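User: Quick sanity check before I run a bigger batch. Here is a single chain. Can you write out its predicted 3D structure?
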Amino acid sequence: MFKDKNIVYTSGTFDMFHYNHLRMINYSRSLADILIVGVSTDELVSSYKAPPIIPFNERLQIIEALKTPDIVIPQHTLDHTEIVKKLNIDAFVVGDDWYGKYDYLKELGVQVFYFPYGTGVSSSSLRKTIHDSYQNNLQQEQSAKPVSVKSEKKYKPEDL
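Assistant: Done. Predicted structure follows.
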């Protein structure tokens, strides 16, 4: 049925969906007759870095809403051996921040492409920018408030 079709798999957390996510998915699409996109579960992401800000079900729905993928599936593990075998994957695309991590798939006959994310936007950089901005605003707010409020009129306990 899929004899002459090139099946490409790409995966990611896709937290705080941004331009580089879109670029990688579009690049994957350009290689594929059938594009399968895996979205990492919250549990998987939490096993190797801070939990995602956007919950899994919402991230999955965002990717499903794109016109680019043919199939969107949950990704439960960083080991893609089983998924490659089950779905007859021909190529795998992942961000170059994972460079070398998936070379083992080449032994299974899968072409591995490390998409050049570059120095642009990433979920980690967005998270840091939001955090730093919040901290700066909080410090400004705190420095603008008086340390203590002194009443001009002194009340005695019996006046109350």
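The two ends are 87 Å apart (CA to CA).

User: Great, the batch can go ahead then.
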